[in-house]
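Question (not urgent): is this output format expected?
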Amino acid sequence: LHYSPMHANTITLEALRSTPAICQLLGQYFDVEIGPHYAEDWYRIPDEDGYDSFGAEGAGGRYIQLQSGKVLFIDSEGSAGVVAETLVEYLSLAINAAYWASMLHYSAGGQLAPMQTAERLLQSMACNEEDWPVAIRQSLNQALGITPLSSYADRLHHVVCNHAAQPLVLAPDGYAYDKLFGDFQPSDNPI
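Got this back:
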């Protein structure tokens, strides 16, 4: 990788966008395609002005940095919610718990214990090294000045449960997007 290391407290979308090597790794290994702001018509955030739709994931979802700095995820299936308080917190989640969406999916409607179980199961999967190589994660953490958490389930649960921080996201027909928590639990469909 050819880049100047960043410090976690100075990472901005502009700095990230201007570092192609980091953006390439985020897209290739972590399904986070960083790009310019996209103006799209398949969702509206009526109480937010000046947000930055900065990235996409392979299934059609969008990553949006709100004016507050929080990172909102809108999936292509009609769910949305803040997943991180800051851009750095989001990058840490995406790099070190790339299976975060599965933790939400297996949350039994937003319960912490099933998320913790899902995290343990997902961490132990043999395909993790192939999909998200430790060397790549370490390199990105070092480049971005990120210290990984030992567990992400608790923090993700706290952020997604914070209803006051969740902006209203509407589809073009006025339908409000659902919460990100899934109704499944790990025992429903062993991971």
